[in-house]
Amino acid sequence: MLNRVKNIVHGIRNLFALSARKVFVVPTISIAPRQCAFIGKTLITVVLLGALGYGIYQHPPFQSVPQGAVGVRINQFTGSVSEWRNGNVWVIPGLYQMQVYSLRDQVYRPREIQSATGSAPLQSIEGLSFGVDLSVRYALDPLKITALAKISPDDISKGLVESAVQGVIYKVFANYTMREIFSVKRVEIQQLIEKEVSASLARDGIVLRHVQIGNIDLPAEYRRGMESLLAEELATQKMRYTLELKEKQVKQSALEAEAEKARRETEAQAAASEQVIAAKAQEEAMKHVLPFKEKQIQQRQLEAEADKVARIRGAEGSAQARRIEAEGEADARQKLADAEVYRAEHMGKTNAEQMEREGALVTKHPLLIQKTLADKLSDKVQVIIASPPAGGGFIGANLLGASAASAARSNETVGAE
């Protein structure tokens, strides 16, 4: 953008030089006085506008206020003050003056007092130099920003906070010994610094949030002396704790012995009481057991007699049952014998009658013998071809090789029967 403005100014300058060369150098052209005055006014106007634009570019007439901050605009002619938040504020150079203050918490940590060998170390009541890592957290009071803008320097941390803190810490630490500073009085010193610094900063419109005392840098000689002293104190405390521990162990042993003795006595008493109670209980139980045993004996005698009677009755019943079974078996055998005799007699009669009928039938029909023989041989002989005997004898006589006389006798015998 700056190069563009320079190019424009350079172009205007060249244009003015060319115009002047055309007006004043060329002798053949004549310019009236009115035209010269118009051209001069035009050139002056362009130059003024260019200078105004360049000044606005270099020094814009507005200023932005970021989030978490407040802007204070002061009129340099009237002295009036106005506050602005979160946005752009119209600031005309030469008319207004603008200051932007952050409302967020800020931390001030003085570096020159952090080391015992630093540029401005603290001193105790003994005159020993030491360093402290001190952190002061503060914020601007939004209600007093207007008054603060009129009297405050440009750098509030250096101009107000640093002077207030240093004016308090040197005075406070100088009232305590070195041992109190880093051990027993540390919290008290921190609270006292907070109280005095808070009152000092509140008059300037600054709110103190917190003061934190960190590491304390002790002098080298004092540190060595403290280390040896602490070592001796630790040894002394260790010895004291050891003696106390031994005493407690002795007391503990005595108490344990007493407790063991009491426990054994209690166990012995409990065992004796248990035996007495068991004897009494056994005696009391025997009072109920003996009658119960007598009843058991009586019950067993009665059960034995009842068993005896039951066995006798069972034997008698078994004998009687056997007699009845024997009689029944004899009767059954007798009946079976009678039935067998009757069956044999009846079968004999039946066979005799049947033989009689068969004899009569064979006598009447002698060929039945041949038929019967053929039926018997039918499953062994497939075909039998034979001529019947001449005398009407047995058809198988020729096959069996029997003589005719034998066949005749057989026929006679059959006929006799």
Count of DSSP H/I helices = 10
Q: Span from first to last CA?
A: 173 Å
Gross CATH architecture of the domain at 63-225: 2-Layer Sandwich
CATH level-4 homologous superfamily of the domain at 63-225: Band 7 domain
Can you describe this structure in just a few lines?
This protein has 417 residues and is an alpha+beta fold.
Descriptive report:
By secondary structure, the chain is α+β, with helices and mostly antiparallel strands. Among the domains are: 2-58; 63-225, Tetrahydropterin Synthase, Chain A (2-Layer Sandwich); 365-416, no CATH class. The protein has helices at 2-25, 33-58, 145-151, 156-173, 178-184, 186-202, 220-364, 367-377, 397-400, 404-416, and strands at 62-75, 81-90, 96-102, 106-108, 122-123, 129-140, 206-217. Strands 4, 5, 6 and 7 form a four-stranded antiparallel β-sheet that branches. The protein has a three-stranded antiparallel β-sheet with strand order 2-1-3. Strand 5 (122-123) and strand 6 (129-140) form a beta hairpin. The chain is elongated and about 200 Å long.
